[in-house]
Design a protein that fits this description.
The chain is α/β, with parallel strands linked by helices and 421 residues long. It contains 12 helices and 21 strands. 28% of the residues lie in helices and 25% in strands.
Length: 421
């Protein structure tokens, strides 16, 4: 469920008509719903009610300060994967004890910043990283709390580019070597082992891969405790999928996911951490664009819109589907027409959809890309010197620009001309 609904013939974000936002900020733009963000976070929090837990939002999905502050105010922790994300989380007022640092390539500088600023734990991905973190912690006179990410060799049955739990993926240590690696960690004076970390991929639409991975984690927990390790925290990652296409079967609900966690891991008495990103913000955001031209081609018509692949890369990178709807509600029974929906960038890959049925549209009409909140704005670029598009947050009948569109002068003036030119 989201809060983008037609009302009086116009698509609204909560209580704000989208055409009013378009008139105020121009197109294209991203728009997020506070009510949807809040609802989705609370679904996860309630799914784990009665268990010691922390829901850490995976902020790589969408990291605008206003989104982070909204979720932090609800009690969310943050899962960060870079020094920049750590700085964003702290700037949004998230205390260090609610920040988990993931990622395979943490640098000494990133480790130092997190240890000095406060951190809940590092999710360590390799033995070389473990050794470096130990050195950095000792140089600062502190002890770094860690979990070790294990790779359970479970096929998440998701897109190859977002699968992370198979043996050939770059993430974590093979689960078969875990006891050896944990023994090494326990011998390093700058580290304190607090738990186990696992994350098998993104956009999972079936609980069975989670179940298989968590059973392996349960077995490993018992084995590590037998070895003398104090395993008191299980970081289970994220990855629960969202329905990108209306009419398709819905992915499992957070409540079903929480029930499965209880079944597989509840008997261990561990604190549970989960790191949802896409499900919290994906359907909480849309991208609104305007039709520039309707072009007739050989056997097909094109909607050329003012968004491009640099604004929303997912269709070009992952062949991802986004439902695209007119902002003005079409009349009941109006005939649909197939369009190729494309952007202005001079690449054939700048195509959002092919032969997508839509009501007849013309230049100046607005369209909305649904489920664009996750991996939309954060993956955008200024390719073709196209400015990053504004982000807008709606709260009831109010809206605010939470990232402005830069001017061409602002973009160009970032360049520095060498003195010899």
């Amino acid at each position: 469920m989201d809060h983008f609904l037609y009302r009086d013939g116009m698509l609204h974000a909560e209580d704000v008509p989208l055409n009013e936002i378009a008139a105020a900020v121009g197109t294209p733009f991203y728009c997020y719903s506070t009510a949807t963000l809040t609802r989705h976070f609370r679904l996860f929090d309630e799914a784990l009610a009665g268990m010691d837990h922390l829901v850490c939002y995976a902020m790589k999905a969408a990291s605008n300060q206003a989104i982070l502050k909204t979720l932090a105010g609800l009690g969310a922790g943050m899962d960060v994967v870079s020094g920049g994300e750590y700085a964003r989380a702290r700037a949004a007022g998230v205390p260090g004890e609610r920040i988990v640092f993931s990622g395979v390539g943490k640098t000494r500088e990133e480790m130092r910043a997190a240890l000095q600023g406060g951190i809940r734990q590092f999710n360590v991905e390799s033995e070389p990283e473990m050794d470096v973190l130990n050195e950095v912690a000792l140089s600062l006179g502190v002890v770094a709390p860690i979990t070790i990410r294990v790779n359970p060799d479970v096929d998440a049955k998701t897109h190859a580019k977002i699968a992370t739990g198979k043996s050939e993926n770059k993430f974590g240590i093979p689960i078969g070597r875990a006891r050896q690696v944990y023994a090494h960690a326990a011998a390093l004076p700058g580290l304190q082992v607090v738990g186990i970390d696992v994350h098998i991929g993104s956009q999972l639409t079936d609980l069975q891969p989670f179940r298989l991975a968590y059973r392996k984690v349960a077995e490993l927990t018992q084995a590590l405790r037998a070895d003398g390790h104090d395993i008191r925290r299980l970081d289970l990652g994220g990855g629960l999928g969202i329905p990108y296409q209306q009419g398709n079967s819905a992915p499992p609900l957070p409540m079903e996911y929480g029930a499965m966690i209880r079944e597989e891991l509840g008997h261990l008495g561990c604190e549970i951490e989960i790191e949802p990103g896409r499900l919290i913000v994906g359907n909480a955001g849309i991208m609104v664009s305007q039709v520039i031209y309707v072009k007739s081609g050989e056997g097909r018509d094109f909607l050329i819109i003012d968004s491009a692949m640099n604004d929303l890369i997912r269709p070009a990178m992952y062949d991802a589907h986004h439902d695209i709807v007119p902002v003005v509600q079409p009349a009941v029974g109006v005939a649909q027409h197939p369009y190729d929906i494309v952007g202005p960038v001079c690449e054939t890959g700048d195509t959002f959809a092919r032969q997508r049925p839509l009501p007849p549209l013309q230049a100046g009409d607005l369209v909305a890309f649904r489920s664009a909140g996750a991996y939309g704005a954060v993956m955008a670029s200024e390719y073709n010197t196209r400015p990053l598009i504004p982000e807008v947050l709606v709260h009831g009948d109010q809206f605010a620009v939470i990232r402005a569109r830069p001017s061409f002068d602002e973009i160009i003036n970032r360049d520095t001309i060498p003195q010899w030119l």
